[in-house]
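Troubleshooting: if your tokenizer reports a length mismatch, compare against these two reference records.
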Amino acid sequence: MILQKTAKALDELQPGSRRLPQRARTVLLLAGGKTLEELHGLLGGDHAAVAQELVEQGYLQLTDHAAASTATHPAPAAYPEVPTDGLSTAGTRMYLFDLCERLFANRHEALAQSLRTQLREARDLATLRHAGLSLLDAVQTHAGEERAAALREKLGALLDAPPQPA
């Protein structure tokens, strides 16, 4: 059986939301897509018992491996919607700043500062595209390929669009 995060878990993991103790939050962060055995191997101790409590409280759900591999995973709530009213330089920059803040500001300050600098210095969509690709690389490194792929799909219009004048 595979552990999957519920919407309640994603809400708990948002910056500024701290209803659970740190040990339970650690289990939530690592639980998505793993079995209880894998989680025990990563964390040891009685974290499997904490995971079971989180299942009972509605933060995690157990799914069979076949269902987990074929399920469609909605984009995490941490990702704002991509603007659909055309891609302006200013709008695109603000969208990428927002992503940077939501994903990295609280946990990886040095990385967030580096990404902010790239975004501040970007003066055209081609440079913003480069900054967006840097952000995606950071997401892949810190959150995994699945999250990066979901975000890459949402940002497809930005990353694949030809540069346009501001």
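Reference record two:
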Amino acid sequence: MAAAVTGMQMICGAGLSSTSIRSNHFVPLKSVVHFKKDLKFRIRSMNEGGDGDVADEKEKAAIPVPPRLFSTPPPPPQPEESTKITTIMAFDGPAPERINGRLAMIGFVAAIAVELTRGQNIFSQIQNGGIMWFIGTTVLFSIASLVPLFKGVSADSRSGGVMTSDAELWNGRLAMVGLIALAYTEYIKGGTLV
């Protein structure tokens, strides 16, 4: 009998008295097999009439589609635009820079156009009746820019394509710098730029 036990130990690869018995001990089957608890098996059969394709389509339609793991979250809701005058006319509000930029764009183009047609620098344009045009244009464009903001319409919601609200802001900034540079250059030069 000892020979049979020794033979079995050799076949199994480890003796009962060896120190490696701990690594070769019996492990219950339920701890080795890891199945999902909600795993479902389907048994399908095809009939002889060739309707198997229809049955497959019905089964595919009945299988729920798992949710995507990396789905894009919905965009956050846009906050409503405030229609208070203190919010609109605040330093970082939507009106001041936009209105100043629009006025600077009009002023820069008008100053260059009058300089090219009449030969007057910006200071002589202001002295020769330009101040009334400046005040009228400022009032008109300020009111026209504020009306949509008081109705809750933002410039970002109305922009698209090439004409974006950012492009308008950058054009206004460049016009402000251009108008100041034009006035400074004509002051230093003592005459017209062109």
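Descriptive notes for reference record two:
- The radius of gyration is 41 Å.
- The mean pLDDT is 75.
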